Amino acid sequence: MSNKKPVIAALIVAAGAGERFGASLPKQYQPLLGIPVLKYNINKLSQIIDINNIYVVINPLHELLFIHATQGMDLPPPVTGGATRQETVRRGLEAIAASDAAKPDYVLIHDAARPGLSVDLIRRICDALAESDAAIPALPVADTLRRLQPDGRTQTESREKLYSVQTPQGFRFELIHGLHQSHADTVVTDDAALCELAGHAVTLVAGEKDNFKITEADDLARMEQALANRCGDIRTGTGYDVHRLIPPPDDLRRLMICGIAIPHDKVLEGHSDADVGLHAVTDALLGTICDGDIGMHFSPKDARWKNADSAAFLRHAADLIAARGGVVTHVDLTLICEAPKIGPHRDKMRARMAEILCLPESRISLKATTTEGLGFTGRGEGIAAQAVATVRLPFTPAIQMAAATEDDDTRKWGT
C-alpha cells in the first residue's frame, strides 16, 4: 500500500420520506436511544479520523429537522436530494466534487436508515479500497429462498454464493462520480451495480447482522436492542454545583433552573446563566466518560460563555457521550433550596431536560428538598444541586484499552 494517506469522504443519503415507516417524523430523524438516527451514523463515521469530511443529502422539507439533529456538529452544508435515491447520490457526489475541500480519493456512500454500522465495518471497507475500485459489505443469505411461479406454485432457489448487501459502500471517487454522470438514466438498486455494469470488479467484505436497514416501526425497537447490547459498559457519574442568590443586576437577568425561567426576587450569580441544575447534570455526564468538569470545557474566564444558556453545556456533554457510541439512560437530580418552590415547576423542568438530552421524561428524575433552615441554603443565600447520571458505553476489554493507550494511532489508515 502506498505511504500516501488517502483522502476519504463519506456521503450519507438521508433524503427519503420513509413512507413505509408509517410515522409523521421521517425515520432518519427518529430518536434512537435518545439520539436521532441520522446522528448515530455521523457519530460513527466521525470516529474514523481518516474520513476528512462527512456530507449529508437531505430532503429540502427536512432542513429544520437536519439542523436540530446535527446541532453543534462541524459538517458541510446539507445537499438537496432528488426524486430518487440514484439522483440523490449523484447530487451528493457533485457537491463533493464542487467543494473547496481536497478532492477525495475514496468515498463511502451510506444510507441514513442503517445506524447499526460499526467502526470495525467502516475500517474493513477502507482497507479493501486500498486494493479495489469498489468494496461493499455483504452477508451470506442464510434463509431458504423460494420463487413464486406464474401458476401460483413455488420453486426452491439455490442460496449458494448469494449475499445480501449493506452500506456503507466504498468506491474510488472519480470512478463512481463518473459512472453516476454517464449512467444517470440507468436504474439500479445500489451504487455497486453501476460498477458492475461498467465492468469493474466489486470486492465483498464481511457485513454485520446489526447493520440492518430501518424500514418499519418495529425495526427501530430491534435496532435499539441491538445497540443497547453493544453498550455493556454501564457507568455512573455524579455532579454537584452551588450558586449564590443575588438581587437581579439588570432587567434582563432571570432565575434559571433546569432550563426554565422561574419568577423570583433574586437570581443566581454566575458567568453563564448560572443554571445550577443543568450544571450539576453536565458534571455528572462528564464524570461517566472521565472528561473533567464543566469549567474545563466552558471556562468562566471565556467571554463566549457570558450569560450563555446552560442548555448548550448539557447538550455538549451528551454529544461527547454519543460520539463514543454511548447513550444516556437516566438522570436523577436533587435541588436544595428554601425558595423558590420547585414543585410548581417540576414538570416543565423535567420536560426541558428531556428535550435537551433527547430522552423520554420517564428517564428524568427531579426532586427538591430543603435543609430545614440550616446552612447557606437554609438562609436563602444560594441554591445547591446534586445529580447522578447513568450512561451505557460500548464495552472495551482492558487489553484493548491498554493497547490504545500505548499507540494512539490505532484508528488511522492502514493500522
Description:
The protein is an alpha/beta fold. The chain folds into two domains: 8-226, Spore Coat Polysaccharide Biosynthesis Protein SpsA, Chain A (Alpha-Beta Complex), CATH 3.90.550; 233-393, 60s Ribosomal Protein L30, Chain: A (2-Layer Sandwich). Helix content is 31%, strand content 25%. The strands form five sheets. Strands 1, 4, 5, 6, 7, 10, 11 and 12 form an eight-stranded mixed β-sheet that branches. A five-stranded mixed β-sheet has the order 16-13-19-17-18. A hairpin with a 2-residue loop joins β2 and β3 (35-36). α8 (276-288) runs parallel beside α10 (311-323). It is elongated, with a radius of gyration of 25 Å. The model is unreliable at 398-415 (pLDDT under 50).
Key features of this structure:
60s Ribosomal Protein L30, Chain: A; Spore Coat Polysaccharide Biosynthesis Protein SpsA, Chain A; 8-stranded mixed β-sheet; 5-stranded mixed β-sheet; alpha/beta; 25% strand; 2 domains; 13 helices; 31% helix; 415 residues; disordered C terminus; elongated
Query: Overall pLDDT, averaged?
Result: 90
What is the β-strand count?
A: 19
Low-confidence stretches: 398-415
- Helix/strand/pairing category: alpha/beta
Determine the CATH topology of the largest domain.
Answer: Spore Coat Polysaccharide Biosynthesis Protein SpsA, Chain A
Summarize the structure.
The chain is an alpha/beta fold and 415 residues long.
Detail the topology: elements first, then pairings.
Blueprint: E1 8-14, E2 31-32, E3 35-36, H1 37-46, E4 51-58, H2 63-69, E5 79-80, H3 85-98, E6 106-111, H4 119-129, E7 134-140, E8 145-148, E9 154-157, E10 163-165, E11 169-172, H5 173-182, H6 191-197, E12 203-206, H7 217-230, E13 233-246, E14 255-257, E15 260-262, E16 267-268, H8 276-288, H9 294-297, H10 311-323, E17 327-336, H11 346-357, E18 364-369, H12 375-378, E19 382-393, H13 398-406
Parallel strand pairs: 1-4, 1-6, 4-5, 7-12, 17-18
Antiparallel strand pairs: 2-3, 6-11, 7-10, 7-11, 8-9, 13-16, 13-19, 14-15, 17-19
Helix pairs in contact: 3-5, 8-10
